[in-house]
Amino acid sequence: MSFNYEQSFTIQGGNFTDAGEVSVFIKKTLQKMGIPSEILRRVAIATYESEINIISYAKAGVIYIRVTPENIIINIDDEGPGIENIELAMRAGYSTADEKIREMGFGAGMGIPNIINCSDDFTLTSEVSKGTHLKIIINISTN
Amino acid sequence: MTLFDIIDILDAKVLVGRDRLNMEVKTAFSADLLSDVLAFAKAGSLLLTGLTNPQIVRTSSILDIAAIVLVRGKVAPDETLRLADELDIPILSTRYILFETSGRLYEHGIKGCVEKVGRDDYVSL
Questions:
Q1: The predicted structure's pLDDT at residue A143
Q2: Are B32 and A105 inside 8 Å of each other by CB?
Q3: What is the CATH number of the domain that holds B89?
Q4: pLDDT reported for residue B125
Q5: How far apart are the first and last CA of chain A?
Q6: Which of B35, B43, B63 sits opposite A111 (nearest CB)?
Q7: Gap between the Cα atoms of A26 and A36, Å rounded
Q8: What is the phi-psi region of residue A101: left when phi exceeds 0, alpha when psi lies from -120 to 50, beta otherwise?
């Protein structure tokens, strides 16, 4: 099977009502392409956690996804507060979420650890008061 | 076990998905924290929760959750119900509390979709 697809999505920060809409769309699109379900699930979780992060913390952000025959590359760039302590952010249970985020059922400090669990390759770079960049790679072929 | 059986056991009402009640389920995940649902719930499971916002439906769709059971007699807002209908995820509502809901289903053979999570150095208590 040979996959080729790319698309960018702009996410508005603070738009809690639609939180997750883009990720559900991405999942359905990749599902129609015939991406295997275990891979699809990891892509869906990684994009969803990222989308929730943009909505929760940033002014705006972009999710860019590219599907090649070998892997799925997801780039996330946001204009947000940045992450002061990346090591802490990557630790399960650490969170800076406010009441609004917690009311929605998020902010348990599982987001980034969960994205890492779903990734074959993961990089996070961040600059305080500028924004955060995530690069997630999920391999399609396991051989 | 089908959703029909679950409705019987939990004396539940169907809010969405009346036409999909013959769906089979074997496992469940209970939580009021979607972060944990996303980290630990498995495809094909029931989600038992007291949350009612549209994100319970989107989270379920992302994870291929089979159906949602609202506990403590919760009724979901229209936007949640509309979305569940659109994404084809049945929603039931029971007046039992989360503990009772989980316990009654367990007694009838539904198991947790995972038993334990984390490593000693992963989730610190």
A1: 56
A2: yes
A3: 3.40.1390.20
A4: 46
A5: 14
A6: B35
A7: 14
A8: alpha
Domain ranges of chain A: 5-139
β B111-112/B91-93 pair status? unpaired
Check if the beta carbon of residue B62 is closer than 8 Å to that of residue B42: no
pLDDT at position A109, please?
87
pLDDT for the residue A93? 87
Q: Please tell me the number of Cα atoms within 13 Å of A108 on its side-chain side.
A: 19
What residue has token string 């036409």? B19
Q: Which range marks the domain in which residue B83 is found?
A: 3-18+26-112
Tokens 């917690």 belong to which residue?
Answer: A102
B8: in domain: yes
Q: What is the CATH number of domain A5-139?
A: 3.30.565.10
| Domain assignment of residue B120, yes or no | no
- B55·A41 Cβ contact <8 A: no
Domains in chain B, number = 1
In a domain, B125, yes or no: no
CA-wise closest residue to B10 among B96, B106, B98: B96
Whether the CB of A29 is below 8 Å from some CB of chain B: the reply is no
Are the C-beta atoms of residues B32 and B54 closer than 8 Å to each other? Answer: no
Read off φ and ψ for residue A129, nearest 5 degrees. Answer: 65, 10
Q: What is the pLDDT of residues A119-141, one digit of tens each?
A: 999 999 999 999 999 999 999 97
Q: Is the minimum CB–CB distance between A114 and chain B shorter than 8 Å?
A: yes
Question: What residues in B contact A23, CB-CB < 8 Å?
Answer: 58, 62
| Residue B80 counted as domain residue | yes
Q: Which residues of chain B have pLDDT under 70?
A: 119-125
Does the CB of B79 have a partner CB in chain A at under 8 Å? yes
